[in-house]
UniProtKB/TrEMBL annotation:
<dbReference type="GO" id="GO:0008270">
    <property type="term" value="F:zinc ion binding"/>
</dbReference>
<protein>
    <recommendedName>
        <fullName>ZF-HD dimerization-type domain-containing protein</fullName>
    </recommendedName>
</protein>
<feature type="domain" description="ZF-HD dimerization-type">
    <location>
        <begin position="27"/>
        <end position="76"/>
    </location>
</feature>
<dbReference type="GO" id="GO:0000976">
    <property type="term" value="F:transcription cis-regulatory region binding"/>
</dbReference>
<keyword id="KW-0862">Zinc</keyword>
<keyword id="KW-0479">Metal-binding</keyword>
<dbReference type="GO" id="GO:0005737">
    <property type="term" value="C:cytoplasm"/>
</dbReference>
<dbReference type="GO" id="GO:0003700">
    <property type="term" value="F:DNA-binding transcription factor activity"/>
</dbReference>
<feature type="region of interest" description="Disordered">
    <location>
        <begin position="1"/>
        <end position="21"/>
    </location>
</feature>
<keyword id="KW-0963">Cytoplasm</keyword>
<dbReference type="GO" id="GO:0050793">
    <property type="term" value="P:regulation of developmental process"/>
</dbReference>
<dbReference type="Pfam" id="PF04770">
    <property type="entry name" value="ZF-HD_dimer"/>
</dbReference>
<dbReference type="InterPro" id="IPR006456">
    <property type="entry name" value="ZF_HD_homeobox_Cys/His_dimer"/>
</dbReference>
<keyword id="KW-0863">Zinc-finger</keyword>
<dbReference type="GO" id="GO:0005634">
    <property type="term" value="C:nucleus"/>
</dbReference>
Amino acid sequence: MKKRQVVVRRGGSGRSTTTSVSTTVRYGECQKNHAASIGGYAVDGCREFMASGEEGTNAALTCAACGCHRNFHRREVDEVVSESSSPSSNNF
């Protein structure tokens, strides 16, 4: 999960606004075409990526359910933006 924080200072109001963006990535159904070599289209029905090993190893990139690489699974990105403002002692 990536977390990014941005601080915006505005001169006239004496307040600063802090915006935090949290990004969560998950991998959905497998989209590998197993019949591409014979000119057809067939997917295996794997509904969600499950890592075969611990994070940081090569096995973490292989799906335990279907054996495909993580890149064959649909990537779904969720971003949550939260914003808060507080009084600032700095006047620009």
